[in-house]
Design brief:
about 250 residues; Immunoglobulin-like
Length: about 250
């Protein structure tokens, strides 16, 4: 009215809205083994925005399409980050350790066929194989002659790639049958008269038998109807061989 003089002015106000915070949830990573398949790390952001992974050791693990790809045995730190967007600020990074164990190689080794107690071990029995390159060490070693019975053979395999693969071992059973000399100098099933005569001559120094012939002729004494070799050729061996030839005693 006429008693008041009022003038109005307008003012502009600004309101600043801060970005929301976000957190990352990243479970502990399970231990893995070399050659394992790619796997999802499982981290999530509270904002539901997509997270990003990074590996500290690319010789152990890389990130492929959001999954962890195993490259080799060892350890790596996996870092998860989320940089934010128009509504969320960046999240604090979370780091988890990844352990990748060595892979144990597979040894294939079939049970060997039985051998007798004078047959030395050879590649016929010691023939394990593996799917990767490496070195085999056998116990007992090639050339060993085993006693009769069920014997245990073992092998230790050391891979050429000893970073990603561990050593491995495997046992097998081997049946060793008792060998008995037959009196046949040539190693046949039964002796003949020539064998008997040659053994007789050797006992009086008229003939020298080879080491193999001596082994085959060492039939005395007989225990339980079977030879019990005593490491020498004498008249007892000659007599038993002669009895075998003429049929006085049966073969064993």
């Amino acid at each position: 009215d006429s008693n008041y003089n009022v003038s109005a002015t307008s003012a502009a106000a600004s309101i600043q809205i801060s970005k929301a915070t976000q957190t990352i949830i990243f479970p502990d990573l399970p231990a893995k083994t070399y050659k394992d398949a790619d796997f999802a790390p499982g981290a999530t952001a509270s904002s539901r925005l997509t997270v990003t992974y990074a590996s500290s050791n690319l010789a152990v693990a890389t990130i492929v399409n959001g999954q962890i790809h195993i490259v080799g045995a060892g350890s790596a730190d996996i870092t998860v980050s989320q940089s934010g967007d128009a509504n969320y600020g960046p999240a604090t990074e979370v780091v988890k350790s990844l352990k990748v164990n060595q892979l144990t190689p597979v040894i294939n080794w079939a049970t060997p066929s039985a051998i007798n107690s004078i047959t030395p071990l050879s590649a016929t029995q010691l023939n394990a194989i593996a799917t990767i390159a490496g070195n085999f060490i056998y116990t007992p070693a090639s050339g060993t002659v085993l006693n009769a019975g069920t014997q245990i053979l073992s092998v230790t395999f050391t891979p050429t790639d000893n970073v990603n693969y561990s050593s491995a071992s495997k046992p097998v059973n081997l049946t060793v049958t008792q060998w008995y000399p037959t009196g046949s100098l040539s190693g046949g099933a039964t002796p003949n008269i020539t064998d008997a005569l040659r053994v007789m001559r050797s006992t009086v120094g008229l003939e020298t038998l080879t080491a193999v012939e001596q082994r085959n002729a060492d039939v005395a004494p007989l225990i339980g109807g079977k030879p019990s070799p005593n490491g020498k050729i004498d008249a007892g061996d000659a007599l038993i061989i002669l009895k075998l030839v003429v049929g006085i005693i049966p073969a064993w």
